[in-house]
UniProtKB/TrEMBL annotation:
Its EC number is 2.1.1.14. This is 5-methyltetrahydropteroyltriglutamate--homocysteine methyltransferase. CDD domains: CIMS_C_terminal_like (cd03311). Keywords: Methyltransferase, Transferase. GO terms for molecular function: 5-methyltetrahydropteroyltriglutamate-homocysteine S-methyltransferase activity; zinc ion binding. One of its GO terms (biological process) is methionine biosynthetic process. It comes from the Bacteria. The keyword Transcription regulation does not apply. Pfam families: Meth_synt_2.
Length: 373
């Protein structure tokens, strides 16, 4: 799919962009805790969320961002909250949380309890509020990739006989959501996906084989889920994907180069842009980018870490952008943090001041590299 004139005008993803989630303000954390204890109503919590999101939007614009999100301020998790809103999917309190590098999340899981579909979703209203308050900035919505249900959800017996059957319904559900969110004015949608990183290491591929599945066939199914879910999007709607190796309290879940699946990711997905982690050695080098053959595919280099507060040497960042341009044309490249600042409500081990310093660092370096100041 070629980039339309409308997409070129919007220029998203922008040269200095961001993944989407931000640290929850203390006021919001306290309000959520009070609501869980029954001390305030859901509407009172909603009012505080509204006020904090309005403040966040202004902070993003003041930092120089051209696209703004609601920071995931209404979510506990970057993926579960959305997936639980689909028909046939329910959340539950799991026996234990997800394991990261030395830490573990709170216990939570999702389960497929019926046929997956889309009827309505809370995040339609969430986006409506963001769009109303975005002003002259582009309102960007982030949701988990359909592959996250395939990889993260347990399934009740007797509902789906195969992964393929589940993916068929997932595709239809996402198509319905995408059409609805488009009608609400969304022109910049991002799919967040940690499933691809399972294929980056021998350990990850072995974990797929231990379930009696072929990694190559699973990767093909994941690519189909993405491509068919977005196939019917209108010409003026841009859809990107963020590929992540895990982000919880400044830790990670997996490591590995894009090389093992580079032809599929860079040559087989019909997204308009890819947000990629390149903030440390866990992600490998830029060589896999040689498989980018579409001149209309934006590559957003996640060279600024969201995990720690120290600012990267700007000259080193510029040098790495230049290295990446050996494989992808400079006008196709962009810059961002490698992930959000709070993939879950707990957030990374970084202060709000450091967070905004990182955002401004991205914008300033991008302005210098691409002369957008």
């Amino acid at each position: 799919m070629s980039v339309s004139t409308e997409r070129n005008v919007k220029r998203a993803p922008f040269k200095g962009d961001h993944v989407g989630s931000f640290l929850r303000p203390e006021r919001l954390k306290q309000a959520r805790a009070k609501q869980e204890r029954g001390e305030i109503t859901e509407q009172e919590l909603r009012n505080i969320e509204d006020e904090e999101i309005i403040k966040l939007v202004e902070k993003q614009k003041e930092a120089g961002l051209k696209a703004v999100t609601d920071g995931d301020f209404r979510r506990s998790w970057w993926h579960f909250d959305f997936l639980e809103g689909l028909d046939g999917v329910e959340g539950f309190e799991a026996e234990r949380g997800l394991k990261f590098d030395g830490v573990e999340t709170k216990a939570r899981g999702i389960k497929v309890t019926g046929k997956v579909g889309f009827t309505d979703h809370d995040m339609i209203e969430h986006f409506r509020f963001l769009k109303k308050n975005a002003g002259d900035a582009v309102a960007k919505l982030t949701i988990p990739s359909p592959n996250m249900l395939l990889f993260r959800a347990e399934r009740e017996e007797g509902i789906y006989e195969s992964d393929e059957a589940l993916v068929d319904d997932l595709i239809a559900a996402y198509q319905g959501f995408i059409q609805k969110i488009y009608e609400e004015g969304c022109r910049y949608l991002q799919l967040d996906d940690t499933s691809w990183t399972t294929f980056f290491s021998e350990e990850g591929r072995t974990s797929i084989e231990e379930k009696g599945k072929n990694p190559e066939e699973v990767a093909e199914l994941c690519a189909r889920a993405i491509n068919e879910a977005i196939a019917n999007r209108p010409a003026d709607m841009l859809i990107t994907m963020h590929i992540c190796r895990g982000n919880f309290r400044s830790t990670f879940m997996t490591s590995g180069s894009y090389e093992a699946l580079s032809e599929t990711i860079f040559g087989g997905l019909d997204v308009d842009g890819l947000f990629l982690e390149f903030d440390d050695e866990r992600s490998g080098g830029f060589e896999p980018l040689r498989h980018v053959r579409r001149p209309d595919l934006s590559i957003v280099l996640g060279l600024i870490t969201s995990k720690f507060g120290d600012l990267e040497d700007p000259e080193r960042v510029k040098a790495r952008i230049l290295e990446a341009s050996d494989y992808v044309a400079m006008d196709q490249l962009c810059l961002s943090p490698q992930c959000g600042f709070a993939s879950t409500e707990e957030g990374n081990e970084i202060t709000e001041q450091q967070q905004w310093g990182k955002v401004r660092h991205v914008v300033n370096i991008a302005d210098e590299v691409w002369n957008e100041g």
